[in-house]
Design brief:
mainly beta, Pectate Lyase C-like, 2 domains, 18-stranded parallel β-sheet, 12-stranded mixed β-sheet, 1 helix
Length: 430
């Protein structure tokens, strides 16, 4: 067997006894599951430490029966994770207590020994984990949820690179969820209440089908916060403050990445880079970056706000892309694509830019219309089309002051000249 798909993990540095070698997890679906001792409130003195820390663990080679003559076990420990720290022939790691026999004997999800009988084992049952680490993430399995406790000023400073090779699946992704009060996958945790992971120059990379919600990341690493195939980021914020060129705040090099209600800043690079196809960015805010968003083929941007970037949206190809209900303001180049042959760009506001749109290629397979080009030094720059009647700007474009509520502070709600329901101005990034 192995760690169950239904296991929920707890990272909570606010517990004074939280530690990397605590159990840190609970499987609520286990038969006869007891008390979740990974929650700080359920630990001794509500300090986040283990409910028990046995030092005389024993296990016969190849067995799943764990014993201790000191009788440290209780029925309420079923479903909890024990971290085995050390011992003769014990393999350190996280194991689930799946059944209770007596105070001196329980059953684990799999054997915890290798090469002979285990003796003098030391372990921790329950308790919170204090800091994200690569080894912890690698042992997660598809379907797991990792909860990270937030709150104003709660920051987890990485001490090592995290580059997770373990993947979830499309039907059983692995969730990483920041929370403050209510602990659930769909919980509300906005603004300063979200936990911050201070990655610094450390890698923070997740493999396929890792889904992150309500997480703030600060980074100076080349790729910033990096997701794999099918990545999903919801209500996350990444800031790359490196002074070196060509950095990223978010990077997804595989297909099917999704961003919803996220915020991204990259001082010397791209706020969000999409190098794979069929990826979507919805209602996100990218600002104060060298590039707001770098796109590849078949990417969709809906309701995004991009401001104060050298280039708002850029890329070699805009093939089969969609730019809908977006707001791009105060950029040197609003949109700059070397190939925009099949791009659909509708109902966008492009304002206060030196050049609104710069296209290296544009023809009748693309369609740009119903956009508001306002106060740009040059609205559009493009190569000649094959049909003289194909115009850019489009036949329904307007030139009207959007009347932003407070663009200097990122509030891009519009005034009476344009319809709030017709242009992308949603601010759901917290």
């Amino acid at each position: 067997m192995a760690i169950a798909a239904t296991t929920q993990w707890e990272i909570d540095k606010t517990g004074t006894a939280a530690a990397a070698t605590n159990g840190g997890g609970f499987n609520p679906s286990q038969k006869s599951a007891g008390t979740n001792y990974s929650l700080k409130a359920n630990t001794p003195s509500a300090a986040g430490g283990p409910i028990a820390a046995p030092t005389g663990l024993a296990m016969t080679n190849a067995s799943t029966t764990l014993t201790d003559a000191a009788n440290p076990f209780t029925p309420q420990m079923v479903g909890n994770i024990i971290y085995i720290v050390s011992g003769t022939n014990f393999v350190p790691g996280w194991y689930e207590i799946t059944a209770y026999t007596s105070a001196g004997q329980v059953t684990l999800d799999r054997t915890a020994v290798s090469g002979g009988d285990g003796t003098s084992g030391v372990g921790n049952i329950g308790g919170c984990i204090d800091l994200p680490a690569d080894a912890f993430f690698e042992q997660c399995v598809p379907g797991n949820t990792v909860f990270i406790k937030g709150g104003t000023g709660v920051t987890y400073t990485l001490c090592e690179a995290i580059s997770v090779a373990k993947s979830g699946t499309s039907t059983a992704p692995i969730f990483v969820v920041g929370y403050n009060d209510t602990r659930s996958i769909g919980c509300t945790c906005d603004g300063a209440n979200r936990p911050t992971i201070a990655a610094g120059a450390n890698t923070l990379t997740f493999a396929s089908y890792w889904l992150l919600r309500n997480i703030v990341v600060t980074t100076t690493e080349n790729y910033g916060l990096r997701g794999g195939k099918g990545a999903l980021f919801v209500n996350c914020k990444s800031t790359n403050s490196s002074a070196s060129a060509n950095r990223r705040a978010f990077y997804c090099g595989n297909d099917g990445a999704r961003f919803v209600d996220c915020e991204a800043i990259c001082t010397k690079g791209s706020a969000i880079t999409l190098a794979g196809t069929s990826s979507n960015i919805l209602w996100c805010y990218m600002h104060d970056s060298a590039q707001g968003c770098i796109i590849a083929s078949s990417n969709a941007l809906v309701g995004v706000v991009i401001d104060t970037c050298t280039t708002g949206i850029s890329g070699t190809y805009g093939y089969y892309g969609l730019c809908l209900n977006c707001t791009i303001d105060n950029c040197a180049n609003g949109i700059s694509l070397s190939k925009g042959d099949t791009m659909l760009a509708l109902n966008n506001i492009i304002s206060n830019c030196s050049k609104g749109v710069v296209l290296g290629n544009y023809n009748e397979a693309a369609w740009w219309d119903y956009n508001d080009f306002y106060n740009n030094s040059t609205d559009t720059t493009k190569v000649p089309t094959r049909h003289a009647t194909l115009a850019l700007p489009g036949p329904h474009d307007i030139d009207a002051d959007p009347g932003y509520t407070d663009s200097a502070n990122g509030d891009y709600r519009t005034g009476g000249n344009v319809d709030d329901t017709g242009f992308g101005v949603r601010l759901g990034v917290g």
